[in-house]
Amino acid sequence: MFDHFLSVMNQSIRYLTKSRFKLAAECPRKLYYTGKKDYLDRSIEDSFLAALAEGGYQVGELACLVHPGGIRVDDLDHHVALAKTAELLQQDEVTIFEAAIAFGSMFVRVDVLRKMGTRIEIIEVKAKSYSAKKDGDFTGAKGQLKSEFLPYLQDVAFQRYVTQNARPDHQVHAFLMLVDKEQFSTVDGLNQRFKVVVEGRRLRVQVEPGTTLESLGQLLLAKVPVDVQVDMILSDTLMVGPTEQLPFPEAVGAFALAYAQDTPLPPVPSSACSGCQFKAPSWPLPEQPKSGFHECWSQAFNWGEADFSEATVLDLWNLRGKNQLIEQGVLKAKQVTLEDLKFDGEDPGVNGMTRQHRQWYVCQPEWPGGGEYYFDGAGYLSARAGWKFPLHCIDFETSAVAIPFASGRHPYELTAFQFSHHVVYEDGRVEHRSQWLCAKPGVDPNIDFVRALCIALDKDNGTIFRWSAHENTVLNKLREELLASATPPQDKDALVSFIESITSRSVSPKEKFHGPRTMVDLCEIAEKFYFHPSTNGSNSLKKVLPALMKSSTALREIYGKANYGGMGVSLNFVEPIAWWQERDGEVMDPYALLPPVFDDVSRDEADAADEGLSEELKEGGAAMAAYARLQFEDLPDARRANLESALLRYCELDTLAMVMAIQAWDHMAAATAKS
Question: Of 30, 93, 599, 672, whose CB has the highest number of CB atoms within 10 Å?
């Protein structure tokens, strides 16, 4: 009876957990929004797809294997987990996985806890790459903690704080266990020893029977002591309000009290608000979850619905100094001055728009020639002058798995598993000529990827297009892999020569090599010559394509009818589709017309695969997660086929979007020339 009472009592406590502390460290107000069904949450805390894409689950299990004999405490009930952990800690020496520790209304689950007498080690395991040569002790040139590691260090600092207060008679030491990029696998098929099972929104890893520490070969994880860095954090302050900073113990006490009482802390507006997971795309949204961002700014600045209808400083692409502007009360884009942008206000020159031009056009929606959008037809035609038909548009999908496929490979080495390839002929005909996908479990696709791409592009000398730097970066990394291989393929020289012919790379600080058929970056074309206010200055293809759909009469004429698909046109869309569609008076984003990638996962969770990833990986998160599922999950043949089909459709639209951009700009340039 008493045990039941304790269970009910403990379950009623709103604990400040590790994940809640992490949110509070980012923004204290987020504590109030998290976990509430009536507030939008785009991240879906602990997105299993994001963790799967980056290899977090497999790394966690690998860390457990590194500590043989550990006892797992995986009870969801806080009281039961605390009781089991306390009982285990009565032993003089013990290793516990997911050890539950509480101090007041603060609660942590330690990934790996080792007790040796009165010494306790808390080890936070992260699927984050680490290089002792590059990252060292996580401090920068001025002695500050590096921003990319700060959230992890704050996480383990909170754990040490809770554990030390809960066990004052012990010496508690903190460690980060990270993926060591300087090591390499000495075992083939290592990653296939860690299969996954998806159950609803939960995922568990099944380690292949017989897998032991010895069978893993060379250790791929680095255990890094971080007591010095934790001491820095614990002796520093944390922000709890717009102007209030408190010492760490007082700050976490304030966080815990606010969360326990479900009381909102004051909003702290900053540039980080642009990426807030509690931010709705528009406001208000009838019969939709509430938007925490809009609630914050309404309270902080007394804003109403009309204020949010205008562009804010958060909308300005690639603008440094947003925090200073917000502190000065410069909140709306129209309040930003030329001096704020360090811009002279001159019209674009022969080299097209600069970053400041694009920012200024968001602030003051007037540009040369006026109209709905800005397009420099002459500049575009000048850039286009050297293009040769047929035109080739290519797009890659890649992954970087934490645990390598084969011996000799390092963690997080690039894996190129898919490409799509569209061709535009001089007569205007468009063909989805080729595609390639290899997601067979345990197969390293890189060499075959390069071979297939070479075959796809070697039939003529037409100009090749990419969008942004990704494809060029991928090919250069594959070139380095070929050159460094201890067992290179027989056609290594031919593959290296092919890569060098279509890429550019730095050969010295001041010199760059350009192959005779170097890919043209359409993102740079967009940045210099096309601006639509709906993009807020961004040049992401996912932003530019919807803008072109709105602004191009050519795209409306070409794709307004269901005529894309079938033999000779598409390799994946058997039934023709109309890519230009209107709904409720708005032109649809073509990507929204595709069925979801996952038939057993909600769109919210799929979107969270992007939100949960690091910035450089966003927009590829769903594809990376799909590839990870194809690699590590024992899927029925039908579901595997559906997942591969979804990947092929999405990648096809990526290269078709590039074709659409060329078609739209060609038409705009012709119209400009006539006028």
Answer: 30
Between CA 262 and CA 342 the distance in angstroms is 44
User: Which amino acid would we find at residue 667?
Assistant: H
Bigger pLDDT: 289 vs 352: 352
Burial annotation 463-498 (CB, 10 A radius, 16+ → b, else e): bbbbbbebbbbbbbbbbebbeeeeeeeeeeeebbeb
Q: Is the confidence at residue 617, as pLDDT, over 70?
A: no
Q: Pairing state of beta strands 391-399 and 415-424?
A: antiparallel
pLDDT in tens, 224-256: 999 999 999 999 999 999 989 999 999 999 999
What letter represents residue 147's amino acid? S
What is the sign, positive or negative, of the torsion defined by CA atoms of 158, 161, 166, 172?
Answer: positive
What distance lies between CA 547 and its chain's CA centroid? 23
Distance CA 465, CA 526 (A): 13
Contact 127, 59 (CB under 8 A): yes
Q: Which range, of 95-109, 206-220, 451-465, averages the lowest pLDDT? A: 206-220
Q: Which pLDDT belongs to residue 219? A: 93
Mean pLDDT of 111-125: 98
Q: How buried is 214 (Cβ within 10 angstroms: 0-12 exposed, 13-18 middle, 19+ buried)? A: exposed
pLDDT of residue 89 exceeding 90 = yes
Q: What is the dihedral of CA 320, 324, 328, 333, to 10 degrees?
A: 20
- 526-560 burial, b for 16+ CB within 10 Å, e for fewer? bbbbbbbbebbbbbebebbbbbbbbbbebbbebbe
Nearest residue to 355 via CA among 311, 321, 394: 321
E-strand ranges in 377-468 read: 391-399, 415-424, 430-437, 464-466
What separation in angstroms does the CA of 652 have from each of 434, 594, 646, 655?
9, 11, 10, 5
Cα 342 to chain center, whole Å? 30
3-class secondary structure, 479: helix
- The Cα angle at residue 452 between residues 448 and 458, in degrees rounded to 5: 140
The helix-helix angle for 470-484 and 492-502 (nearest 10°) equals 150
SS3 418: strand
Among 133, 216, 124, 137, which Cα is nearest to 177's? 124
- Between 3-17, 120-134, 269-283, 633-647, the lowest mean confidence (pLDDT) is in 3-17
Look up residue 506 and give its two tokens: 């730095």
CA distance 282 to 604: 17
Identify whether the C-beta of residue 498 lies closer than 8 Å to the C-beta of residue 454. yes
Q: Is the peptide bond before 546 cis (omega within 30 degrees of 0)?
A: no
For 530-577, what is each residue's pLDDT tens digit?
A: 999 999 889 999 999 999 999 999 999 999 999 999 888 999 999 999
Query: What tokens appear for 396 in the block?
Result: 């890659």
φ, ψ at 416 (rounded to 5°): -100, 110
Q: How far apart are CA 431 and CA 231, in angstroms?
A: 61
Residue 658 to residues 19, 378, 526, 545, Cα–Cα distance (Å): 40, 20, 11, 8
Cα gap 308→327, rounded to integer Å: 18
**β strands within 215-348, DSSP E:** 221-225, 237-239, 245-247
Q: Is 666 left (phi over 0), alpha (psi -120 to 50) or beta?
A: alpha
Share of the chain above pLDDT 70, in %: 94
Q: Are 631 and 439 in contact (CB under 8 A)?
A: yes
Across the range 351-376, mean pLDDT stands at 93
CA–CA gap between residue 649 and residue 669 (Å, rounded): 30
Average pLDDT over residues 169-195: 94
**Identity of the residue numbered 520:** V
Q: Assign 3-class secondary structure to 592-648.
A: HHCCCCCCCCCHHHHHHHHHCCCHHHCCCHHHHHHHHHHHHECCCHHHHHHHHHHHH
The H-or-E segment that residue 444 falls in is: none
| HEC sequence for 190-209 | HHHHEEEEEECCEEEEEECC
